[in-house]
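[audit] Reproducing an earlier prediction to check determinism. Same input, same settings, fresh worker. If the tokens differ from the archived copy the diff job will pick it up downstream; this log only records the rerun itself.
[audit] input (357 residues):
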Amino acid sequence: MALGLALLVALPVVVAALPAGDRDTSAAELRARVLASTDQPFSGYAISTGGLTLPVSDALTPVADLLSDQTTMRAWYRGETDWRVDVVTATGETGTHRDAAGTWTWDYADQRASRGSAPDLALPTAPDLLPSALGVRLLSEATDAELSRVDPVRVAGRDALGLRYTPADEAASVSAVNVYVDEQTGLPLRVVVRSADTTIPALDTRFLDLDTATPTAATTAFSPPADASISSDRDLTDVDLGRGDRAALPDVLAGLTRRSFDGVPAQIGVYGSGITVLSVTPLPGRSSQGLRAQLAATPGAVVDDLGVRITSGPLALMVAGTSQRQGGGGVYLLAGTVTLDALGAAATDLQNGTGTS
């Protein structure tokens, strides 16, 4: 009996230590298989571990928790608009159900359901950290020159071919992303994001168990119970952006080209591509003071005439500018996977109006 239990406990470690089979597949071919894997159904358990510490406001606490803590997820995936992800905690579960019209988020303990529209641009949630989703997203804009093969590993008892994405942009704060791809299906089974200044991954997400059979429709479907409390999720269109008479954001900041997303207010700018992305959001003067003080109190913060900026792993944050009441052009929150130098360059462009329009 004792021997049987010991073998059962040791089995996952033994399986993970088995040598992984490799294939003569080019990096570009492997990326193509990953991007084609969005049609592959599956179910399984995954765990995401974040290594970032962020001084944030209450509104961003859920995001900070995702990026600094361990998140355990159970997923059922039938297609891009038909899936379910449950986040498992010590006190219960919260389920996110995707359908053609958007998402339902269900809090089992509080019997509370919230409806979301699944916009093109939104703050990250637990389902975004599944290896299958994150791997596709990060590789979708990588160029062939930024890709290389690395050694295979075993993930969830399966052979996973290694693919490395090394961003070429000088503004990039991410040094490398390793994506380990299921040899049979092309599904990303593990994603490891690293920055240059630490050996600890900024993010490591992996499947612990995976079944590629199609889950039943009843498993992913959701209708709120009759006695549930129902609300609507906030998105970027609901954010208080302060006064609307600021100068239009430029098309290029710090050498990064602005991107366009449906439904995103014109006052919010998103720049860059791949994993090198910078967002610029106007802050009302009344709310910027507290965040500025939080950043300034962070060890390693850079405080100068441009504003206050910090880094945590590959993520950089900055409060830049001066309020319009004080004669400035407004206060902005700059955030992204860029270097401190890139943040400073972007803030200078905003301050001097030298960004390319």
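[audit] rerun output stored. Observation attached for the diff report: The radius of gyration is 22 Å.
[audit] end
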